[in-house]
Amino acid sequence: MVSDNVFDLERIKLRDLNSALHGASEADAAKRWVVKNPNGAHAVAAGIRVPMTVQIDGHVGYYCAGMNQQATVIVNGNAGVGVAENMMSGMVHVHGDASQAAGATGRGGKLIIDGNAAARCGISMKGIDILVKGSIGHMSAFMGQAGDLIVLGNAGEYLGDSLYEARLFVQGSVASLGADCIEKPMQDEHKSALHEKLKQLGVAGEVDVSSFKRYGSARRLYNFHVDNAGAY
Predict the structure, then answer these.
(1) Beta strands per DSSP E along the chain
(2) pLDDT digits over 2-57, tens only?
(3) Residue 29 and residue 15: Cα distance in Å, rounded?
């Protein structure tokens, strides 16, 4: 049985934790890394570049698991601004709520939020897949370029404002759509794609894909046109 690496942030500095994560050997990476008493610290487990599992027991502050590559980071609490921002690969699972800009600019990997996410969830997403089991705040997926944002609850105002090619699926209500974001038909191919994505995110069979609405870009803002000047 592989023993755990346990770090208590009431006893060691955050810088020492992150340095240990960045310098982990292959043998160390095979262990489960457990972080105790984060107490809202910022940038916990940021910048990991190897496949490893980090379990954080408690609430974290800004930019937890930012720039993650390959690692699985589990937060047993709530997360502050920018959790999993600019993630490249791997997975971040928040077992609570997330503040603003969750998954911002993420280029890959999976972000799962069991609770709600505040404003600008998935802002400028570039390939990350985000599942929010609760609701999301206003301006989510603003300038989303690629990836999937799947919401089991409701979406706030201006969903998908200035959207590029990110795919948005919302099971609940949407307060309003942003500039150039439109509802699109939910055809069989989209239901199949959503089912496959939910399977990858570990919730296939728990929700009915036919209950979702699909949103995407109307592609009117790709090139400047004076008639659309008011929407830029």
Answers:
(1) 5-8, 32-36, 53-57, 72-75, 91-94, 110-113, 126-132, 146-151, 167-170, 181-184, 213-217
(2) 568 999 999 999 999 999 999 988 788 889 999 999 999 999 999 999 999 999 99
(3) 18
